Amino acid sequence: MRSVLVASTAFGLLALVPACDKRPDSNPSPTTETPAAPTTASGPAAPKSRPFDPGQLAVFAALPASIERPDNVLTPDKVALGRMLWFDARLSKAQDVSCNSCHDVTKSGADDAPISTGTKKQKGTRNTPTIFNAAGEFAQGWDARWTLVEELVVPHAAQASVMGVDEKRLVDTVSSIPAYAAAFKKSFPDAKGAVAADTIAMALGAYARKLLTPSKWDTFLGGDQSALTDDEKAGLGAFMDASCTTCHAGKYVGAAQNQKLGVAKAWPASADVGRFAVTKEDVDRGVFKVPTLRNVTKTAPYLHDGSIASLDEITKLMSRHQVGKELTDAQTKSIVTFLGALAADPPKDLVAKPELPASGPKTPKPD
Ligand code: HEC
Ligand code: HEC
Predict the structure, then answer these.
(1) Cα–Cα distance, 357 to 176 (Å, whole number)
(2) Which of 48, 121, 124, 175 could form a disulfide with 195 if both were Cys (CB 3.0 to 4.6 A apart)?
(3) Is the CB of residue 114 below 6 angstroms from any atom belonging to ligand 1?
């Protein structure tokens, strides 16, 4: 049993290397030092709390204080404008959904549906990922299609199952609202205050870049071992013993690489080809971005298709299909307890719904 486990883990690691997309500020490669869980004849006992030395924790990192991009400076004016656009359903074709309808920042940065409902009640095929911390991830979208949040905005809004608006309609709508035109002038003095696809994406991107959720996990990583309870620390041990850190490590406990779903044991067929849709390379069939586990206790249902409702269940399935090992109920419960320590809310003033400016005479009607 043990040798099978080690072999499959090593295989997983080999497979990781070429698939690991790198950005200059991306997280370190997955560690090879994660020990396999000790198995005894009587079966594993419930995980126990233990002290962690900094070396063991080096595979993780605390959230940065902010996610800056030099060419989209985060001024308070721009973030406030982005927040208004974020909540404004007039941006969508039938003026019935805003970014917040699916990525609800007053909740988990996502919604509860396996598949969200977009404008004109259209449905896509993928689960809505949380917007919290997303701007810092190495790529955007389940298939890592875009690198920066700003790059995603216009094509994402154009999807029929999202907002159903082409670039022209998006720009026409925003520029027709008099107070927006004034706010763009203030936020983008260099671009001469133009309302354009670019500046709309920058404003929404600026808002997304502020939606960080540092938690007691970050305090713990900062050196305060008392920030986690004994049960959470035991869960961290169980998480590391279960080799989850092969893929879920770094600042976001994930979101630093793409991986095949079913790397150790085949996943039942999924209709979604994953990253193959972007690269058209066979090795990318069924490959998805490894999601962040920050806030994961609040973002059910799980996976790219929202097919798994419970965190206990997905934890067991991950171990079976990604690591090649069965978890006991006690190990599963302990890991889930640890995952709870990764959750926190962004600052309240950032997520409150702002008052939206009145439409102008040229504002398009819903269609
Ligand atoms: C109808 C629901 C819906 C609406 C409305 C919506 N999104 Fe999304 N969003 C999604 C889904 C689904 C995905 C995953 C897309 C994929 O992987 O193909 C996603 C992905 C994202 C991501 C990538 C996050 C990650 O972790 O990969 C960002 C950023 C994002 N959306 C921002 C926005 C912004 C900005 C708006 C408003 C302009 C918006 N979304 C409107 C459903 C929605
Ligand atoms: C070989 C890489 C790999 C390993 C090891 C791995 N995961 Fe994952 N994990 C992924 C990928 C890829 C996904 C997304 C798959 C998808 O959506 O189809 C994922 C998704 C998840 C999700 C769902 C998150 C969401 O927002 O939908 C959870 C929870 C999770 N993993 C926990 C774990 C735990 C706990 C372990 C250890 C037992 C683990 N993972 C081990 C690659 C891995």
Answers:
(1) 11
(2) 175
(3) no
